[in-house]
């Protein structure tokens, strides 16, 4: 049983802590005038509520006496509900020494593991988060361009620490994405498949196998050539090529264009059951070699590529791991080659010789976030990237 004195004492401690918190808040508002204060209406001092997603949309509050009033009412609420652990939680930042990278939106809505920069890439001391409550604490913010089209005006109104770096991150080629206007002072760094971006991240990598990788076995096949395509455009080189190729060899076609939508679950089993897969890029740019190549490779099929030159591909993947459409004079010759290989298991297996030493790693956003973190740790210099549009689109 607690004595009266100790109850009184703990109550004093609670009230004392709350007063301390309040003064800290007021102090913060006073001495960090460049930061915008974004309180929530109900309980502005709790960790969860101090700045929820919605709060990021609350305009700057200039009136300090309002906040003080709210502080007092919260203080009363708190001492009524007695939550002495609050101050400890607020004060202790477990990520004090870590570099925080905020993922503004999941690229293409795809969520990835946040905790594995160290295990996947050996990059230590990163705290990746998608929690916008950490906006003010983040050292860098990753903006996937495609997902922020309508938000530029809003982003311009956010007040950010002069030390925070905003990263223009983009995965698609110039042909598939509109420019972002009014954003010339917004970003500090670029992260992209292009090797002249600040934080270069390709769509995938061929990496040495490690002990924990299972030995590779060619998956069972019941189809010869497959293609999944949604984005059909008669002007694309790939469409013309396909139309001709399919006159000489049967191509199993999937995707929205063919009325056979493939969901994420079916993608793996379908692709791995094909001997060859048409890894045809929708637009042709140097280094623009996408998941259309790396995913089928990972799944154990032989990619037939249409994109930049063979030479450019060979900078990323072993030269005997793929077929380039330019290896043949015509689609018909390619079709004949595929039929020959179909009849000759030894020839087919040669395409997988490299798998004794290597495996495929896809990236899709996660590696971007980890590399951004790595870059922020190493480079503390001031930098603004002007004319992003000119750099990327011309
Ligand atoms: C203070 O609290 C009141 C009522 O809870 C709310 O309407 C008001 O917007 C709050 N003011 C600030 C600055 O948070
Ligand atoms: C600030 O808020 C207080 C309390 O809500 C109010 O009395 C005062 O007039 C406000 N001041 C300004 C400048 O808006
Ligand atoms: C990043 O760019 C913004 C906006 O141009 C600038 O205010 C800020 O100081 C820059 N930060 C760094 C660390 O370079």
From TrEMBL:
Domain Fucosyltransferase N-terminal: 97-204
Membrane topology: Single-pass type II membrane protein
Keyword vocabulary terms for this entry: Disulfide bond, Glycoprotein, Glycosyltransferase, Golgi apparatus, Lipid metabolism, Membrane, Signal-anchor, Transferase, Transmembrane, Transmembrane helix
Major site of localization recorded for this protein: Golgi
Pathway(s) annotated for this protein in UniProt: Protein modification; protein glycosylation; Glycolipid biosynthesis
EC number: 2.4.1.-
GO annotation, cellular component aspect: Golgi cisterna membrane
Organism annotation: Pygocentrus nattereri
Principal EC category: transferase
PANTHER family recorded: 4-GALACTOSYL-N-ACETYLGLUCOSAMINIDE 3-ALPHA-L-FUCOSYLTRANSFERASE 9, ALPHA- 1,3 -FUCOSYLTRANSFERASE
This protein's name: Fucosyltransferase
Family: Belongs to the glycosyltransferase 10 family.
Residues passing through the membrane, by range: 12-31
